[in-house]
Amino acid sequence: MTGLAWAALAAAVAVTYVASCWWWPFTDCGCCGGRGTHAREQKGKTKRKRVFRDCRGWRCWPRGCRGAGRKLRIGRRIWNRFAAVRDRAS
Amino acid sequence: MTAESIQPTHYDVELDDEPAPSRSPVFVDVVAKVHEVAPIIPANLRSIDGIRATVKRNVTLTARRFAVHAVRLPFTYVPLAAFWGTVGLFKLLGRQIAWWWLAEQYSLRQHAANTNDWVAFEKLLKTARAVRLYRGIVLAGELLATAAVVVLLSVTPGWVMVLVVVCVLPPLARYGRPVDRRIVRPAVVVNRVRRINSDIVLRAYYRAGLGHPDKPDEQITFPSTMSRDRADTGSEVLIDLPYGKTLMDAIKAKSAIASGLDVTEYQVFLTRDKSSVRRHKLFVADHDPLAIPVGRTDLLDCKPRSVWRPMRLGRDERNELVELYLLWVSILIGAQPRKGKTFTARLIALYAALDPWVRIIVADGKQSPDWDKMRLVAHRFIVGTHPNPRDPDPIGNLLAALDEVLEHIRKVNDVLSQLPVDLCPEGKLTEQLARDPRFPDLRVWLLVAEEFQVYFETEDQEVNKQVASKLSQIQAQGPSAGVIIVGASQKPSGIGAGDVSRLFNRFRDNFAVRFALRCGNRDVSMAVLGGDAYSEGYDASALPVGDEYRGVGYLYGAADATPTVRTFFADHPDAEKILKAARQHRERAGTLTGVAAGEDMAREYRDVLRDVRDVFYAGEAWISWEQLAGRMAEQMPEHYADLTKEAISAQVRALKAKEKKGREGERTLWGVPLEQVDQAIQRREIEGQS
Fold first, then answer.
1. What is the distance between the alpha carbons of residues B566 and B576, in angstroms, rounded to a whole number?
2. In 3D, which of B391, B404, B461 has the Cα closest to residue B618?
C-alpha cells in the first residue's frame, strides 16, 4: 500500500513537473543566477575594479547560458527532443 | 463544221490540271451556340389550374410542416433545446475564458520554447499579461451586468422570464449542438432532384456511345430548348441523334443514358417523335414516378357507369390520367403472377359491371377466389377446367357460353342489318340501341377469360380445338358486334400444337389493346405486347420489380402513345362493394340474367349431339348405344333420366350420325363412332351458317 502511495505521489509530481515545463518552459540559469554574466574583482591593482564575462566557456560548462540568463528546463528539453522525433516521424 | 473543229465534250477529258494541295488553313462556318432561355413564367404558373394546383400544394405542405413541428415541440424540441442550451452556455463560457486568457498566443509561446527563443517568449508573455489585464476588466464588467440582469429578472413577472428563456435558449442550443445533429428535423423530406441541362444530356448521350463530340457529323443536337413538363414533374427536351442513329439505339442504351444523367433507369423516358426516326423526346422525371401509388379506383363511388365512355384505368409516368375505351376492342393482359394482372382485368370487369346494360361472362381458368364475387352480376361464370365444387362442368359451360356469344354476334348482325338508317345510321351498334328495350339482343357483352391458355390445353384435344376455334371466331367477329374480350395470361405463347397452336396464336395476335405488366423475360413481353412494341422500345421484362410497382405496365395499342400506366387499385373488399352496387343497378334496370339471376345456365337447353360428344371418354373412338344411354342418364338426368338405347339410337341417327357395330367386352353391339358424331356436329354448323 505504501509502495502504491509512493508511486501515486511520484506520478503526481511528474505530471505537475511536466505541466510546469509546458507552462513555464524557461528558468534562470543555474550558473549565473539569471544575470547572464559573471563578475570578479580585478587583482593586483590599487583601485579595485569589477570585471565581467559572459556565462559561457569551459568554466561554465555544462550549465552556461551563453549570456542569456535563461535556460530551458530539463523537462522541457526532454519534451522538445521527443517533439522533434515525433515531428520527423510524421 | 469540220471534224477537227468539234471540241470534245466528254467529261473524261481533263479541262484543268489538278490543283496542288494547299496547306493553308480551311475555315469553317462558325456555328452559333444555341442559348438556353429560361421561361419568363414557369410552366406550372401559366394557367389558372396550374396556379391553383401550385398554391394548393404549397398550402398543404406548409400546413403539414406546422402540424408535424407542433407535435414534436413538447416531446422532442424542448428537451433537446434545454440540453444543448446548457452545453452551449458552458461552451460560451469556455470561449470567453479562452478570449480572456489570450489562448491563441499559446502556440506562439510554445514555438518560442521549442526553439529555445527566450527573448520572444518573454516578449509574448509580457504582451499576454497586458491583454489579460484589459480583457479581465471587460469580463468583470460583463459579469456584473449579467448579475444585475438576473437580479432584475427575479423581481419581474414570470412571463418576462419565459420570454427571456424563449429568446436566449434557441441561440444557445444552436451554439451548443454539434453541427451534424439538428434539433429541428425537417417535416418534409426533400428528395434528391436531378435538374438536367444540355451539358449533362450531351455527356450522357456521348458516354452512351450515341455520338461523338469532336466529329461534326456525329454530334447530338437539340431542336428545342430544355423545359419543365406541364405537371412540373420533370425536365424534357427534344433530341436529334446523328444521322444513321435511331430511337432504337437510344432505347438500347437507356441504362447508359440514365447513368450519364445520374438518375435511375426508371426516371428516363424516351418517346418517338413523328417528324424523324432520329428525333425523340427525352423526359427525365425528378423522382421515380412508377413507385408513387395512384390510389384506389373511383369506381368505389358505386355510381352507374357507361361502357360507351372511356374508363379511368390509371395514371401514366407524368401523372396524367390514362383512359381506356373498351368498345370495339379486345384487351390482352399479360404478366408474371402477383404483378397485378388479375386486378387489372377485374378493374375493367368492375367498370363494365357498373353499366347495367352490359352482359358479363367470366371464365376463370385460374380457379382463384379473385373472381368469385362476379357471380353477383355475371351472366355466366365458369371456374377451372375440371369439375369442382364451384363448377361441376366447366368445359361444358365454357363451350355453351362461347356458343351463346357466337349466337349473340349472329343475332346482333342480323338485327342491325334489318334496322332502318335513322335508327342505325352507320350499321353499327350505338349507345341508344344498346339500351333500347325494343332490341333485347343488342347489348354489349364482356367476355373475361382469366388464364385463358388453360382452355387450349385441356386433356381432350377435341375440346381444345373447339375452344380455339370458337374463341378465334369471337375474337374476329365479336368486337364489331359489341363483344369486348378481356384475356389475361401469364404466358400467351407456346400453347398447344397443330391447329390449336395456330388458332391460339391467331386469337392472341388479334387482341387490339395489350397491357403488359412485369413479365418474366423478353419473349413473354413480346408475346404480350407484340414484336412491334419491342422494336419501339417497350419491354415489359424491364419494368421494375417490387411491391410498389405492382399494377405498373405498358398500355400498347389503345392510343398513339404507349404510356407506362400505374393502374388504380381495387382489392377484394372494394370489388365486393362495387359488385353489390352493380347488382342493385341491374336489378333496377331489370338486366340481371343468367347465373346472377339464379338461372341454371349449365343445362339451359338440350343438344343431343353435344351431349353425346361430351360423354365420350378421352381416347374413346366408339361407344355402344347401351353404354351411351347409361352414361347420359347418369350425367344429365335432367334431360335423359329415362333414356333407353333404342331412343338415343333413333335420335342420333336422325341427326345423320351413322351407327356402327363394335366390340364391347366379348359382345358385338351396335353403337356410334366418335368420328360420326363430330362430322354430324360440323355438318350442322355448316348448314346453320349457310
1. 22
2. B461
Chain A residues within 8 A of B114 when measuring between CB atoms: 80, 83
pLDDT band at A46 (very low <50, low <70, confident <90, very high): low
HEC states along B319-371? CCEEEECCCCCEEEEECCCCCCHHHHHHHHHHHHHCCCCEEEEEEECCCCHHH
Confidence of residue B67 (pLDDT cuts 50, 70, 90): very high
| Interface contact A59, partner B, CB < 8 A | no
CA–CA dist B670, B645 (Å, integer): 10
Q: Which of B511, B435, B508, B470 is nearest to B361 (CA)?
A: B470
DSSP state of B569: B
**If you measure CA to CA, which chain B residue comes closest to A78?**
B114
Query: Cα(B563)–Cα(B376) distance, rounded to whole angstroms?
Result: 33
Is the Cβ pair B118, A22 closer than 8 Å?
A: no
Which range (B30-39, B182-191, B485-494) has the least confidence? Answer: B30-39
Question: How far is it, in rounded angstroms, from Cα B675 to Cα B563?
Answer: 50
**Each residue of B399-451: pLDDT tens digit?**
989 999 999 999 898 888 888 888 888 888 888 888 888 888 889 999 999 99
Residues of B in contact with A68 (CB under 8 A): 118-119
Closest CA to B391 of B375, B415, B402: B375
**Which H helix or E strand runs over B444?**
strand B444-450
Q: What is the rounded CA–CA span in Å between residue B625 and residue B648?
A: 7
Q: Would you give the DSSP letter of residue B169?
A: H
DSSP secondary structure of A32-73: TTTSSEEEEEPPSSSS--EEEEES-STTTTTT--TT-SEEE-
Q: CA-to-CA distance for B272 and B535, rounded, in angstroms?
A: 12
Residue B112 three-state SS: helix
A72 in contact with chain B, both atoms CB, cutoff 8 A: yes
Measured distance CA(A28)–CA(A30) in Å, rounded: 6
Instruction: Please give, one letter per residue, the 3-state secondary structure of B506-550.
Output: HHHHCCCEEEEECCCCHHHHHHHHCHHHHHCCCCHHHCCCCHHHC
Instruction: Give CA–CA dist B219/B592, Å, rounded.
Output: 65
Q: Which residues contact B153 (CB under 8 A, 6 or more apart)?
A: B160, B161, B164
CA distance B355 to B222: 48
B569/B51 Cα distance (integer angstroms): 29
- Is the pLDDT at A32 greater than 70? The verdict is yes
Residue B283: strand pairing partners: B236, B269
Beta strands at B444-450 and B667-673: parallel, antiparallel or unpaired: unpaired
Q: What is the pTM of this model?
A: 0.57
Q: State how beta strands B483-489 and B330-334 pair.
A: parallel
* CA gap B362, B445 in Å, rounded: 11
What is the interface pTM, i.e. ipTM, of the complex?
A: 0.77
Burial B507-534 (b: 16+ CB within 10 A, else e): bbebbebbbbbbbeeeebbbbbbbeebb
SS (H, E, C) B127-158: HHHHHHHHHHHHHHHHHHHHHHHHHHHHHCCH
Q: How far apart are CA B346 and CA B299, in angstroms?
A: 12
Which positions in chain B touch A22 (Cβ < 8 Å)?
Answer: 110
